[in-house]
Each structure stands twice: as C-alpha cells, then as structure tokens.
Amino acid sequence: MAVDALDNTLNSTQQGNGYSAMTSADFTKIILSELGRQDPLAPNDTNQLVQQIANIRSIQSDMDLGDRLGKLVSSDEFASAAGLMGKSVSGVSDSIGRIAGTVVGVSRTSSGAVLRLEDGSTLDFAQIDNITEAEDAA
Length: 138
Fold this sequence. Notes:
Blueprint: H1 2-15, H2 24-37, H3 46-82, E1 87-93, E2 97-109, E3 112-117, E4 122-124, E5 128-133, H4 134-137
Helix pairs in contact: 1-2
C-alpha cells in the first residue's frame, strides 16, 4: 500500500539526519505516494505541492551550507593552529589550569584543534590567551 511505502521511507529517513539523509529516490517515493493517495475528483493543488518541494529543497540547501561552513571553520582553525608551530603559547586548560610552552605538534579532534607542547601537555586551540615568539619566552 502507498501509505506503508511512505512510512518506510520516512522511518529510514528519520534514522539519518532529517532531510539531509533523504535521497532523491526517497523524495520521489514520497511525491509519488502523495500523488497516488489523492482523490482524482478533487486533486491537490499542484502549486502547493511545488511550493512544498521548493521549501524542502531550500531547507536542505541551508543545512548543507551550514555543514560545509562548519567544515571550513574547522579546517581554518587547524591551519591557524599549525601556524603556531615553534611559537610559545599559554592558556588555561579546563583540567589542569594555566599551561605555557612551545608548540611542537597539532592534532585535530572532534572538539577542534589541540596543540601539543614541548613538555607533553596539550592545550585546546580555543583556550589560548597569549602567543609569543619562542625566543621572547625565555
């Protein structure tokens, strides 16, 4: 039945990330199911259907843009953190308080760029509050 097909499509879509998990095939199934369920003597307004499709695509486009911007910000943060190699930095860590040292490595984590200092300690890029040339720190 068409309703079962619609429910299966919506359930598989909801397991992903909303509209972003919906494929073109899923979208087509929903549209065809909607068209198949309407009364042939009183069809739905085609303009309304087209407007709904446009709204869904606009929302999808906005979500995709947000994802891409997030990835761009993450890459930019990582590049900025890599530019601190050899520099002396200091900041306040959530776990051990004030940390200072020369940056010898940078890694990317789910929470952002993390600097590895010469003494083995780590500092999140977002927690840096001072940057100096390594020679000036001595």
